[in-house]
Design brief:
This protein is α/β, with parallel strands linked by helices and 250 residues long. Strands 1-2-3-4-5-6-7-8 form an eight-stranded parallel β-barrel, surrounded by six helices. The structure holds 2-phosphoglycolic acid (PGA). The site of 2-phosphoglycolic acid has 13 residues, from β8.
Length: 250
Amino acid sequence: MSRTMVAGNWKMNTTPTEGKALAEGVIAAAGTPSTKVVFGVPAIQLMQVKAVTAASPGYFVAAQNMHHEDKGAYTGELSASMLADAGIDYVILGHSERREYFNEDDSLINTKVLKALAAGIKPIYCCGEKLNVREAGNHEMVVSKQIEEALFSLSRDQIKEVVIAYEPVWAIGTGVTASPQQAQDMHAHIRRMIDNQFGSEIAANVTILYGGSVKPANAEEIFGMPDVDGGLVGGASLSVENFVPIIKAR
Ligand code: PGA
C-alpha cells in the first residue's frame, strides 16, 4: 500500500468559478497521478470539486475544518455527517491557522478526529512547532505532545485512517522551508512514536506529509527523504503551473 500523497490547501482563496477551473486544470495537466492528490477546498466548493474529481482516479477532496458536535445550534459550522453525505474523503484538522486564530487545542482536535473517523472521513492531522520553540530546541517535545494528545486515544483500526502533516509554523507561508534533513528528522521521530504506540506495521504504513513553503523548486529534494511521504501545500497549490510539478515530484 502506497503512503504517498500530495495535498493542496487552498485556504480562503479561490471563488467557486476559480476553484472549478483550478481543479479541472490540474487534472488535465497532471493526468492519472502516481500518488494520491487531494484538493483541500473552501466549504462552498466541496461538492463542486468532488464532482470535478469524480471520474478521475487518484484525486480526492478535503474539507479544511469541521465542527466537533454531531449537529445543532452552531451557526456557520459543518458536521462530519454533512461532509460524509457529500462524499468528501478527507478533512484537514488542527491546521496551525485554526490553532492560532480560532483557539483550537489538541483536546478539541482529538474530539474532531474521532468524529471524522466515526463518519468515515479520513483526518489529515496537522502538527508543528513555532519558531521560538524550534530555537529553544524543544520542537520534538512539542510535536510529541501534540501527537499524544490528538492521536494516542485512537484504536489501531482508527489510526490507520489518519494522515499526519508535519508543518513547522515558521515555514508556513514564509518562503522558508525546513531543510530536508530537519523534515526527515521530525518525520522519523513521528513514525517512531506511532511505532511505539500502535506497532511497526501501522508505523510503516502511516502517511506523513511535510508542509511549509513547498514549491516546485524544493519538492523533489524534500519528498526524496525516506520518511517524507509527500506534502501539504498552501500557496503553491493555487496554480496549475506550480501544483502540477509538485505532484510530479512525488
Ligand atoms: P504554504 O502553506 O505552502 O503556503 O507554506 C502550507 C500550509 O499551511 O498547509
